[in-house]
# Entry
Amino acid sequence: MPSCYGKICIALAAQTLKCHLFYCRWLKEHKNINVFVEPWVSKELLTDDSNNTVQTWDNDDDKKMLHKKVDLIVTLGGDGTVLWAASLFKGPVPPVVAFAMGSLGFMTPFPSEQYRDCLDNVLKGPFSITLRNRLQCHVIRDAAKDEIVTEEPILVLNEVTIDRGISSYLTYLECYCDSSFVTCVQGDGLIISTTSGSTAYSLAAGGSMVHPQVPGILFTPICPHSLSFRPLILPEYVTLRIQVPYNSRGHAWASFDGKDRKQLAPGDALICSISPWPVPTACLVDSTTDFLRSIHEGLHWNLRKTQTLDGPRD
# Structure
């Protein structure tokens, strides 16, 4: 086994705690690998002898240095668990090996029942990865003296959503791409998505499915009050600015991968660009095969009864 995989971080959904015990023991006893887990998992294991095989982090400073302590990430759950694991790393992200234990997964190609064989293959290497871009988002308040004064950046792997929240008024947003005006959004909201997030909320709002390694940013309206507002796919190198104009009737709300909702008042803006720190996820086969299988199995894409031979012919 390559020495570069000396420490593994395991992130898991709450319902997979029992499975986690088997992974910890197997990695420590059979592979001599140190395992990092989230603090809540470490507490759950206090009464179990497996706790002797795991480490955790104690504070935010330790968490910020996690990328220097961990060589590989293993997730047990669905896509939401992958999103959570990625959010732990604000800078470089180690490769992610995602085991499917959720109801639907486009980023979890590894079958959990074959975890020993799968981890053996990954640890022996080499293996293919899908390099998944993240969005780096900054909220700029109207009260800020200049645009350098922003809140702490937020990294998202799927999408940032700007919606009207509980307001009965349409969302009114001014959108810019670099220095060019794009459009005004009048509707329920707007989704700015990575290509990895193209099979999530953006898809439900009418956006295209895009291979995760295609470099781009999806610009998808949510229920626009217009017959001609179609989704866009923009190049990865642009910077998007979404601003709530001063004449907006209400506030807007931004959420980042479905959490951390922030209110945007008139005059506030959200800046989105591609982060320099993507998320490398391990492939079961290769990036394209895994992507196509996920949309066939997860969405039954283009599932249709086959045409018979007993109909009209030329």
